[in-house]
């Protein structure tokens, strides 16, 4: 008797889940029924789902992926109330590359003046992530540029003396020694007399453990900006069903949904079709 009840309850739950899931799917499908031509702003020509411009019809795109178009020339993304210029949106691998709006080509050495690391994006299911989920191992999309200030001079191939870079200097600049470190940095790489002053992200393609970094290298790294993934929005129909479901990119950059139950997989495929 108890067994029978549990079974019925189980079937009911499953049915309700299917109905709910199909509704989540079809929200996206409805939005797509309403044709939204790609928008354009400056060099970014192909702004389409999930991205939208502030000026687009409300039904287009997803509000979490809203960009503003400044002076009709620059696509701008606001993250943590900071302003970033969009360099490219990649629909092939679900990434966007942005650069802090304070970093300019002609400003030879400008650090953003605040810290931004992978931790800032580590909130559960945030709209942007700093990695791409892969089946075997997540792909990191960026690494850190670290600005350190030290009480004593440091002589290391891994440290670039920031005073040679014409860095914008504050008052206590002369009292301390400043260095920049690029690539992988772990706690043991920070010399005893040093503390981390600022950290920033870059996706500049390069060695994880570079030596003899130059001021120009660092400038290029900051100017290149960093990639973020927006795959989360594509994965939502898959992960909303249950915490046991998640999605990832396979080796051909195709979205795959992994579910505890096989029918989840079909539903995610269905959503994916609607969205493309
Ligand atoms: C624009 O983006 C869509 C995906 O949203 C893609 O199918 C299309 O090929 C892109 N067009 C160009 C010119 O990049
Ligand atoms: C922005 O640029 C587009 C395409 O060049 C043009 O059609 C539009 O009128 C411009 N809008 C403003 C407000 O300048
Ligand atoms: C994503 O695609 C863009 C354009 O093809 C490429 O420049 C970028 O390196 C790719 N990112 C990853 C993580 O594969
Ligand atoms: C990122 O996180 C760090 C440490 O919590 C914080 O100091 C910093 O202000 C955050 N950055 C932004 C842009 O919010
Ligand atoms: C951190 O640095 C130490 C010493 O250089 C090295 O042995 C260790 O493997 C590093 N750890 C990571 C996670 O890179
Ligand atoms: C880095 O610079 C040092 C000193 O100038 C030099 O001896 C070394 O060969 C350089 N290493 C690389 C990988 O360029």
Quick gist of this model?
The chain is α+β, with helices and mostly antiparallel strands and 276 residues long. The chain has helices at 2-33, 215-224, 231-241, 262-275; strands at 39-41, 44-47, 52-53, 66-70, 74-79, 82-90, 95-100, 131-132, 139-140, 143-150, 160-161, 177-182, 194-202, 226-229, 246-249, 255-258. The longest helix has 32 residues, at 2-33.
Key structural traits:
WAK_GUB, 4 helices, 6-stranded mixed sheet, polysaccharide binding, 4-stranded antiparallel sheet, 24% helix, binds 2-acetamido-2-deoxy-beta-D-glucopyranose, Wall-associated receptor kinase galacturonan-binding domain-containing protein, disordered N terminus, signal
Overview of the molecule:
This protein is α+β, with helices and mostly antiparallel strands and 276 residues long. It has two domains: 2-81 and 230-274, no CATH class; 95-227, no CATH class. 24% of the residues lie in helices and 28% in strands. The chain contains four helices and 16 strands. Helix 3 runs antiparallel to helix 4. It starts with a helix and ends with a helix. 30% of the residues are buried. One 2-acetamido-2-deoxy-beta-D-glucopyranose (NAG) binds at residues 184, 186, 188-189. One 2-acetamido-2-deoxy-beta-D-glucopyranose (NAG) is lined by residues 38, 46, 48, 91. GO terms for molecular function: polysaccharide binding. Residues 1-28 form the signal peptide.
């Amino acid at each position: 008797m108890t067994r029978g009840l549990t079974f019925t309850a189980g079937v009911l739950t499953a049915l309700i889940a299917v109905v709910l899931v199909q509704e989540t799917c079809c929200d996206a499908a409805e939005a797509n029924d309403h044709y939204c031509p790609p928008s354009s702003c400056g060099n970014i020509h192909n702004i389409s789902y999930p991205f939208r411009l502030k000026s687009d019809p409300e039904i287009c795109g997803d509000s979490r992926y809203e960009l503003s178009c400044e002076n009709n020339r620059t696509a701008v993304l606001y993250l943590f109330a900071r302003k970033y210029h969009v360099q490219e949106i990649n629909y092939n691998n679900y990434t966007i590359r942005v650069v802090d709006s304070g970093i300019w080509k002609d400003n030879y050495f400008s650090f953003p003046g605040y810290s931004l690391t992978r931790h800032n994006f580590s909130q559960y299911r945030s709209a942007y992530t700093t990695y791409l989920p892969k089946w075997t191992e997540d792909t990191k999309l960026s690494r850190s540029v670290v600005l350190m200030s030290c009480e004593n001079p440091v002589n290391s191939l891994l440290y670039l003396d920031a005073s040679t870079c014409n860095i914008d200097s504050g008052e206590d600049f002369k009292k301390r020694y400043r260095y920049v470190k690029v690539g992988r940095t772990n706690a043991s790489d920070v010399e005893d007399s040093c503390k981390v002053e600022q950290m920033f992200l870059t996706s500049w393609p390069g060695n994880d453990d570079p030596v003899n970094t130059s001021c120009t290298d660092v400038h290029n790294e900051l100017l290149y900006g960093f990639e973020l993934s927006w795959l989360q929005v594509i994965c939502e129909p898959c992960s909303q069903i249950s915490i046991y479901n998640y999605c990832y990119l396979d080796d051909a950059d195709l979205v795959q949904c992994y579910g505890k139950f096989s029918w989840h997989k079909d539903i995610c495929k269905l959503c994916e079709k609607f969205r493309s």
